[in-house]
Amino acid sequence: MNVAMPGAAGGKSALISEPADIVVFGGSGDLSKRKLLPALYSAELEGRMPPEGRIIAVSRAKQTDESFVAIAEQSIFTDAKLKRDEETWARFSARLGYTPLDATDGFSYKGLADRLSSAPDRIRVFYLATAPDLFGVIADNLASNKLITPQTRLVVEKPLGHDLASSQAINAELGKFFDESQIYRIDHYLGKEAVQNLMALRFANSMFEPLWNRNFIDHVQITVAETVGVGGRWAYYDKSGALRDMIQNHMLQLLTLVAMEPPISLAAQAVRDEKLKVLKSLHHIKGTEIGQYTVRGQYRSGAVDGQPVPGYLEEKDAKGASDNETFVAIKTGIDNWRWSGVPFYLRTGKRLTERCSEIAIEFTRPPHLLYAREAGSIEPNVLVIRVQPNESVKLLLLNKEPGPGDLRLKQTALNLSFADTFGHIPDAYERLLLDVIRGRQTLFMSRAEVEEAWRWTDNIINGWREYPQPIRPYPAGGWGPASALALIERDGRSWRDDLN
Ligand code: BG6
After folding, report:
1. Per-residue pLDDT tens for 345-366?
2. What SS3 class is residue 473?
3. Which of 157, 192, 226, 233 to mutate to test the pocket of ligand 1 (most atoms within 8 A of CB)?
4. Is 294 helix (H, G, I), strand (E, B) or coil?
5. pLDDT tens-digit profile of 230-241?
6. I need a surface site. Which of 183, 255, 256, 494 has the fewest CB within 10 A?
7. What is the pTM of this model?
């Protein structure tokens, strides 16, 4: 049977033949410069951009078409260090334009409307790389300027609210002007190759699925460790914290892909339905469980990669005392037949030892021990999906150490490195932007998913309010507070800190 993966990295089958205009609100801002422009240029370099179409940045800044081209050139070649190919750059830079606009002022959309009016039937993408409190007013102004056509898609970035109520308000606001099928809620983790591969691994191979349940899986660990601090984003981050910033979205999305039932197809609705069921079955951590199943930490000064770094409260834009968490560890579970009794341990933090995101599926130990203690400890099999850096899939197995002496077992890895096997790994934003143009929503979050994830998160936030959890300090450059170790060690398990 032919398994056509919408997330396939290679095949040229998905080349875009229809012209498309992409309008980026906040177009000269950080996300646009760091991620969007390099991703679109990369797509051009690989011949994946639509045959015709423009990339129009809009914002309040006083730029011109020419100065925006210079900004893009700097971001793409100097900062992102992408390969400069003159022919590609000529083609790409000819697409670029800039229109000044105040997102909150409906009259100022005239320049944009004039520009877009030359191609009214094209695919039109509005990418809102702005603060979420502008989403509603932008949608309203696009509608009142008659810029929303049947071919229009709207892309919104997180944070989609700071709790369930605010997220519902944003979604309701967008829903007044856009059909759900036109809204693309980005979680860039879903565009990462190793994350897309998770579905292929589970559903295009026959060997894992029979084992993928409470009978053979002991527990699952999901770690997203960062070495960066929050310098430069303190004002945003101090209102958010690691739970809202990473767990509510990226990590719960990873968890849903690990835990979902096989969807009936790869169509967006089918995949979203299954992910939603997982979110609805997540064990809600409430009341006194808060202290038992959650740990909050905050980094102090320390050293990362041999360099001294300040603590959270000493970051240069820090505003004094704060008990906001920069680290969180959680034990949860999924209350359904497949996963009943299988713990899911999640942890994420800033200023940890190394940058590493991975999902580890630890299998149960063999039921009967044939080997003497001297042969070594019987380590469990672990399937490790390394999301970044150095994307890979590893299967840890016990093997006999070669040699004529006493029998000894050694845990060794079957290791599939993506870079060695497939070469260049495209950035998540490239895949996601192209999927928006292609009209594929599978890798984007539905309204129901986002809201269900908030429902679960809100319970933890409320629990922290009702049963205040001390914020545990940890030195920058470590693996987080000691109580995060205790969280898992209480269950006779440990974090996989051998993350290489
Ligand atoms: C963002 C968070 O969504 O993801 C950041 O707001 C975090 O705080 C970032 O650093 C991590 O993304 P990546 O792709 O670098 O793992």
Report:
1. 999 999 999 999 999 999 999 9
2. strand
3. 226
4. strand
5. 988 999 999 999
6. 494
7. 0.94
